[in-house]
Design goal:
mainly alpha; 4 strands
Length: 116
């Protein structure tokens, strides 16, 4: 019984933390163009940005990027998304005007997609 209660409390904490970190209203499916998959807000993390930066560095040759745009465009989406999300979180936590949050939510609505 104690394990069940502990599990329920842990689940509630995780779910409340996820909701607390959500900065934007959910985006309804179908807004993306065909062949594009939305990236969830939770995917824009420091770790994801660092991973994508390493990926870009591996694709960089002496004359620039070595592959076609679809291969690196998603990496730039993750980098921009993390930058905007970080700015939005700082604004939210610092009690600053919500302009950075609006910028991030606009990005989520219009640009946070993996394109194929």
């Amino acid at each position: 019984m104690f394990r069940l209660v502990l599990t329920l409390v842990a689940a509630a904490l995780v779910l409340s933390d996820v909701r607390a970190q959500s900065l934007c209203p959910s985006i309804k499916p179908g807004r993306a163009s065909e062949g594009a998959m939305p990236i969830p807000e939770s995917a824009f993390t420091k770790q994801a940005a660092e991973r994508e930066l390493r990926k870009l560095e591996s694709l960089l040759g002496p004359d620039g990027l070595l592959v076609d745009p679809p291969a690196w465009r998603t990496s730039f989406v993750y980098l921009e998304g993390w930058y905007l999300k970080r700015q939005a979180l700082e604004a939210k936590n610092g009690g600053e005007p919500p302009l950075a949050i609006a910028d991030f939510c606009d990005f989520m609505k219009n640009q946070a997609y993996v394109r194929h």
